[in-house]
Amino acid sequence: MRLLVLGGTEFVGRAVVESALRRGWEVTVFHRGRHAPPPGVRSLHGDRTADDGLAALADGGPWDAVVDTWSAAPRAVREAARLLRGRVGQYAYVSSRSVYAYPPAGGTGEDAPLVEGASADAEQTEYAHDKRGGELAAVEAFGVDDSLLVRAGLILGPYENVGRLPWWLTRIARGGPVLAPGPRDLPLQYVDVRDLADWTLGAVERGLGGPYNLVSPPGHTTMGGFLAACVEATGGDARLCWTDPQVVLDAGIEPWVELPVWVPPGGALYDALHRADVSRALATGLVCRPVGETVADTWAWLREIGGTAPQRTDRTRKGLDPQVEARVLAATEGVADTTP
């Protein structure tokens, strides 16, 4: 297979490139040159936000498929898709479950209502509409059957540049009492970036088209299993202090942002993030590795790069202020369950 990856040097794009190279595919990476791609690929440079920024692609190809991870202005997807039409067999666009209208019902699949007002011609607006506009751009150029829409949920794993799992690992490695938001048995839903990449390329090989929710089955792990894996991977003296969700919320701590991955059970946000129907992806080959492997491999990568994870400038920083954590832990002393 001959694969073109638009991006390909960070997080999801890099995982896709590495998965393709393991398959023995011929890989071309189109990127701005800010980060080195994995060895063994052909590099083309350009900035798709600039005038004539796609010039390096004008005479390239043909390719069997392209994978596009773009998250900003949908018009950039539209322009790339139009340029590549006729020289690429299939357009795989890594989208997001954010394209569903909010609040979603728990357990819904790909037929759930979508956000309204998105356009393939739009400039950058807000994340959900940008991703839906990117989907529309891919379908406009390649049609439904040759457009694979990978609606990813929470993505974790090596190369993460959003700051969720790296923050938890860094915090737990620091040791001492750790504010662990409960309940401990809260089911989580996420996907290892390498499992996302492997499924996407398998779907490309099979010629799949249309939308797929791409995240683990609900309850692939729990909050307790996730944080216990972090303790085990880092090998420190951290003590998980399990704290009632209402105590966390009453302290003014923002779920998902200040305590990454976690949202309290029972609300619309929890349904949106951790209760998706992924039966379609499972039926087409999605395999999700254990949480311990995802966590341990991410910790090994963090140590390899010196302990500081890269951070996307277009994403908010994640994590809880140590003073806030200490204040909540002090207020709940004797109440919080410190069992690992």
Automatic annotation (TrEMBL):
This is NAD-dependent epimerase/dehydratase family protein. It comes from Streptomyces acidicola. Signal peptide: none annotated. Residues 4-69, 78-213 form the NAD-dependent epimerase/dehydratase domain. InterPro entries: Epimerase_deHydtase, Lipid_A_modif_metabolic_enz, NAD(P)-bd_dom_sf. It comes from the Bacteria.
